[in-house]
From TrEMBL:
<feature type="domain" description="HTH luxR-type">
    <location>
        <begin position="461"/>
        <end position="526"/>
    </location>
</feature>
<dbReference type="Pfam" id="PF00196">
    <property type="entry name" value="GerE"/>
</dbReference>
<protein>
    <submittedName>
        <fullName>Exopolyphosphatase</fullName>
    </submittedName>
</protein>
<dbReference type="InterPro" id="IPR016032">
    <property type="entry name" value="Sig_transdc_resp-reg_C-effctor"/>
</dbReference>
<dbReference type="InterPro" id="IPR036388">
    <property type="entry name" value="WH-like_DNA-bd_sf"/>
</dbReference>
<keyword id="KW-0804">Transcription</keyword>
<dbReference type="InterPro" id="IPR000792">
    <property type="entry name" value="Tscrpt_reg_LuxR_C"/>
</dbReference>
<dbReference type="GO" id="GO:0003677">
    <property type="term" value="F:DNA binding"/>
</dbReference>
<dbReference type="GO" id="GO:0006355">
    <property type="term" value="P:regulation of DNA-templated transcription"/>
</dbReference>
<keyword id="KW-0238">DNA-binding</keyword>
<dbReference type="InterPro" id="IPR011990">
    <property type="entry name" value="TPR-like_helical_dom_sf"/>
</dbReference>
<keyword id="KW-0805">Transcription regulation</keyword>
Length: 528
């Protein structure tokens, strides 16, 4: 039968488990959580299918046991991504909201509130999911003030609410907030084998975001934490550790380690996987295909993933524009440079479009535009460390092609300070001859090796603190973008003579006599 008030399927019989049976079911489900076995689920399902609907509705833990046991009994084996279980949270949103209002313990609030957050996400309402998560946190604080959230026994779902709120922030593209919530979830984690699931899930997702943003050392720390857990073979393993598989795939692509990438992607599933983290899985597959295979195949896979989720790539803002970025990467790899530039412009040129557009400029001979866009991106605080590194390499090549050898060598030396095996993929996206020429230029100027200390030729170390006016800083940054005096004058709505005056003042304050040395000193002082 269907409960009209809450819109969920419930057993139709009027009998039900005895009070002792119901208590045993609740104790088991609250204890083992995602470690519930298919055999246990079948026994629970058989018992509860004969229960009185109102009896189940009156107890949120019995209702949770029914939903979980029904999924494990009827769908889990056919759904490695456990999509049905996730969708169930959307189906029970009305019920969960009603229960949440009357919840009397922190365990109930966390369990039902987390399910409600998931439900809103599955319905596509990420803002609603965030608001619900916030209200559930407030409810927990209220219980704490009343002394009703305190208990001597361990929490049954430690870290689950923070984990689900972190996933909501991830899908909204707020990665910094997501990392904070994942860290909280991990700190709240209980001990294996039953109470660690939310913390392990949070660690896996934190590793994924760390790799995506280019924080390789941090990613390694999170991956070490996930490696401590060995329960990946259970039915819930895919849900819990998917973020780890994506992280390992992206790291392997960065290192151009094809076998490791293929192993991780096999664990992550196909690009069109029906999981909430599907955009990240699709991006990992796309990156691997671009690195090791065929850009046209990468394009097909990406479009298939978007189609499977009724998603448009050209104007995608989902997960911080990562799908839009993958689409632009594909277009550039296919040689569709003008299309890539147009799509980025139509999307408002968000931060994640800078690298592919800079590549498009470079490959179409617009070296000044490439150098200027790269400089703009490097200065932005909303750009990932990964993208800043790649933009430095693009800028160095662009400057070399503009016959600005000193600046090119300097920028290249900065890139090499952070150079490691995870930048192999960045180098592979560049023209090999350009890299050889750049390395030769840097070596000739004494700036070619990793860790080389760079300085202006014959000018020693940069001076102490320099006080430039706001207008001088604006002019300096226009010069760093590759603008001429005339172009800088036009951009700053002043005359070329006024700009020349500012340039003279900048040179005097920095203790230099030319643009290349000025830009080096400014960069060394953090002015750019």
């Amino acid at each position: 039968m269907v409960d009209d008030e809450h819109g969920v399927d419930l057993p139709g019989a009027t009998s039900g488990p005895s009070e002792a049976e119901a208590r045993r079911i609740v104790d088991l489900v609250t204890k083992v959580w995602y470690a519930l076995t298919p055999e246990q689920a079948e026994q629970i399902h058989t018992t509860l299918r004969g229960a009185n609907p109102q009896h189940i509705i009156s107890d949120p833990w019995l209702f949770n046991a029914l939903l979980l046991s029904e999924h494990l009994t009827e769908r889990a084996g056919a759904e490695p991504d456990q999509r049905g279980l996730v969708e169930t949270s959307a189906d029970m949103s009305g019920y969960a909201a009603a229960v949440l209002r009357n919840a009397t313990s922190s365990d109930e609030v966390v369990a039902i509130g987390s399910a409600l957050v998931i439900g809103y996400r599955i319905q596509g309402d990420l803002d609603g999911a965030e608001q619900i998560g916030e209200s559930v946190e407030q409810r927990l604080e209220e219980l704490g003030r009343q002394g009703r959230g305190l208990t001597t026994r361990p929490a049954t779902r430690p870290g689950q609410l923070s984990m689900q709120r972190g996933l909501t922030a991830t899908l909204r593209g707020d990665f910094a907030r997501a990392m904070t919530l994942y860290s909280t979830a991990y700190s709240q984690m209980g001990e294996p084998p039953y109470r660690h699931f939310a913390g392990a899930n949070a660690a896996a997702n934190a590793a994924m975001l760390s790799v995506l943003e280019g924080h390789i050392d941090l990613a390694g720390q999170w991956l070490e934490r996930t490696a401590a857990f060995t329960d990946r073979s259970g039915w819930s393993g895919y849900l819990v550790y998917l973020g780890e598989y994506v992280a390992r795939a992206l790291l392997a692509v960065d290192r151009l380690d094809r076998p490791a990438a293929e192993t991780a992607l096999e664990l992550a599933g196909p690009a069109s996987v029906q999981a909430e983290l599907w955009p990240f899985v699709a991006v990992a597959h796309c990156a691997a295909e671009l690195a090791f295979g065929d850009p046209y195949r990468a394009h097909e896979q990406l479009r298939a993933a978007a189609f499977a989720h009724n998603h448009q790539l050209r104007d995608s803002t989902y997960c911080g524009h990562i799908l839009l970025r993958a689409y632009l990467d594909v277009l550039v790899a296919e040689g569709e440079y003008r299309t890539a530039m147009q799509v980025a412009e139509e999307a408002g040129e968000p931060a994640r479009t800078f690298v592919p557009v800079a590549h498009a400029y470079l490959r179409t001979g617009r070296h000044g535009d490439a150098a200027r866009l790269a400089a703009q991106g490097i200065r932005r605080d909303d750009l990932s460390v990964r993208d800043i590194r790649e933009l430095r390499l693009i800028r160095a090549v662009s400057l070399m092609k503009l016959d600005r050898a000193d600046e090119a060598a300097h920028v290249y030396s900065i890139f090499q300070r952070a150079d490691n095996d995870c930048t192999a993929g960045m180098r592979a996206r560049m023209d090999p001859q350009d890299l050889a020429d750049l390395a030769g230029t840097a070596t000739a100027l004494g700036q070619g090796g990793p860790g080389t200390r760079v300085g202006c030729q014959g000018r020693g170390e940069p001076p102490g603190p320099v006080n430039l006016t706001v207008t001088e800083l604006q002019v300096l940054r226009l010069l760093a973008d590759g603008r001429t005096i005339a172009q800088a004058a036009e951009a700053s709505f002043t005359s070329p003579n006024t700009v020349k005056t500012h340039v003279s003042s900048i040179y005097r304050k920095l203790g230099v006599t030319n643009r290349a040395d000025a830009l080096w000193r400014a960069d060394a002082l953090g002015l750019l």
